[in-house]
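Lab notebook, page 48
Experiment: co-folding of the full assembly
Goal: obtain a model of how the components sit together before planning crosslinking
Operator: M.T.
Materials (sequences as entered):
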Amino acid sequence: MDWGKIVGANVRRLRGERGFTQEQLAHDAGIDVTYLRGIEAGRRNPSISVLGRIATVLSVRPGDLLIT
Amino acid sequence: MDWGKIVGANVRRLRGERGFTQEQLAHDAGIDVTYLRGIEAGRRNPSISVLGRIATVLSVRPGDLLIT
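Observation: model returned without errors.
Model output:
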């Protein structure tokens, strides 16, 4: 199972539903927008603390970003 | 929220319920036992791919390791 791709698809979907740009989400989560783009593309392997920060901004639980 | 501590407590609890030693879980998940001990102690910030490998060995979903 490629959890990077699953997280990426979930982040991209939830960000769109909440009307955030990549720049807004990256800023509010305290990560670089280049890193966020890599996460959304499924090319990165983020840590649980980064997952937690993104989840907080998107008002979901971190586990929701791992749903298949 | 300290996701490292939450993951650590969940891994330790689920590993105990399934009757795995730290050595068995670390071996089957392909990580060093020292690293697993650090995860269980809440001192590490594992990646989602490590989370996925531990979850697979414990027969849970990775999101279950992030439940508060």
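Interpretation: The mean pLDDT of chain B is 97.
Next step: discuss with group before ordering constructs.
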